[in-house]
């Protein structure tokens, strides 16, 4: 008699599972995430009453209902749901693309080409910080200070630019050593060549209009080389200064804590780079020269004509 009831219980539980999987197949992701709470309670109860032992299969189903499809952990019949997730209140679907494999140490975001994320993700994070009541760092308050006041304590450097064989003009930059002293000192020394190496004679190898102009590879001249005054690489100092508009000076990198000598000048607001690249300066004179450099760019970043740093140094 006991065996009969155990068999009956097994059949009832199995039918409930198949019914649940059928619902998952018929419903959209949004409906799936809104399944009645009674399903969750039923699955939780079944997961602990399967012959008095926990069922890992049912526990996985509970996770899918409670946390959404992003909690997929290997159920064969749920394969089509594993590439759906929710971020900042919106469902992101990737039905045809193969999920990216990001190498360890890479800082490239998986959704880096999503215009919505570029526009709103940074804003959302800033709002969360304000809600927590955390005060902005003291150095952040210095961002609004007049340039003349900053110049009294921060070094100023210059770069003379040549496009093709013609001089294009000079870019003058203020380095924010009051906020990022290590990063600013690295750039200053590379401008003066006081360590025996630096930017003079190197090129802007990657120029993308309405985005940025990148240079600083004085060893390989193609974006794969360069070195800092501290060694080949050094850590991200902080991310206090933001990519708020054109003419900002920021460190290029290949992932977290991989700063060398490569840098870029922003051509527009690039706030999706906040928290990934260290801003350490700004153009004070020569924004028109930056626009000339930008005009040599292309969608793939390859310059139309060679853009060379013919000379560089520090104002003393």
Automatic annotation (TrEMBL):
PROSITE patterns xrefs: CSA_PPIASE_1, CSA_PPIASE_2
Reactions catalysed: [protein]-peptidylproline (omega=180) = [protein]-peptidylproline (omega=0)
Enzyme class, broadest EC rank: isomerase
Domain annotation PPIase cyclophilin-type: ranges: 158-314
Signal peptide range in chain numbering: 1-17
GO biological process: mRNA splicing, via spliceosome; protein folding
Molecular function terms, GO-annotated: cyclosporin A binding; peptidyl-prolyl cis-trans isomerase activity; RNA binding
Primary localization: nucleus
Pfam families per record: Pro_isomerase
Family: Belongs to the cyclophilin-type PPIase family. PPIase E subfamily.
Family matches, as PANTHER family: PEPTIDYL-PROLYL CIS-TRANS ISOMERASE, PEPTIDYL-PROLYL CIS-TRANS ISOMERASE D-RELATED
Name under which the protein is recorded: Peptidyl-prolyl cis-trans isomerase E
Organism: Molossus molossus (Pallas' mastiff bat)
């Amino acid at each position: 008699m006991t065996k009969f009831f155990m068999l009956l219980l097994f059949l009832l539980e199995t039918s409930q599972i198949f019914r649940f999987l059928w619902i998952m197949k018929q419903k959209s992701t949004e409906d799936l995430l809104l399944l009645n709470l009674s399903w969750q309670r039923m699955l939780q109860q079944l997961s602990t009453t399967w012959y008095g032992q926990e069922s890992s299969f049912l526990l996985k189903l509970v996770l899918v209902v409670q946390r959404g499809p992003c909690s997929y952990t290997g159920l064969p019949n749920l394969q089509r749901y594993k590439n759906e997730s929710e971020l900042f209140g919106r469902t992101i679907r990737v039905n045809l693309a193969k999920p990216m494999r990001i190498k360890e140490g890479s800082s490239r975001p998986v959704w880096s080409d999503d215009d919505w994320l570029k526009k709103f993700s940074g804003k959302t994070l800033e709002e969360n910080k304000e809600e927590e009541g955390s005060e902005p760092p003291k150095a952040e308050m210095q961002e609004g200070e007049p340039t003349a006041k900053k110049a009294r304590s921060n070094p100023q450097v210059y770069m003379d630019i040549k496009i093709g064989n013609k001089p294009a003009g000079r870019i003058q930059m203020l380095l924010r050593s009051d906020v990022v002293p290590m990063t600013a000192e690295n750039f200053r020394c590379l401008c003066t060549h006081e360590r025996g190496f630096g930017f003079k004679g190197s090129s802007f190898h990657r120029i993308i209009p309405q985005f940025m102009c990148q240079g600083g590879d004085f060893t390989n001249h193609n974006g794969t080389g360069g070195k800092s005054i501290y060694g080949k690489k050094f850590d991200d100092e902080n991310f206090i200064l933001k990519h708020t508009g054109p003419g900002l000076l920021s460190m290029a990198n290949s992932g977290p804590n991989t700063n060398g000598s490569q840098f870029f000048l922003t051509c527009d607001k690039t706030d999706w780079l906040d928290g990934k690249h260290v801003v350490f300066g700004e153009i004070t004179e020569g924004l028109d020269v930056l626009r000339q450099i930008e005009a040599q760019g292309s969608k793939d970043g390859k310059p139309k004509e060679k853009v060379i740093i013919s000379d560089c140094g520090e104002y003393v």
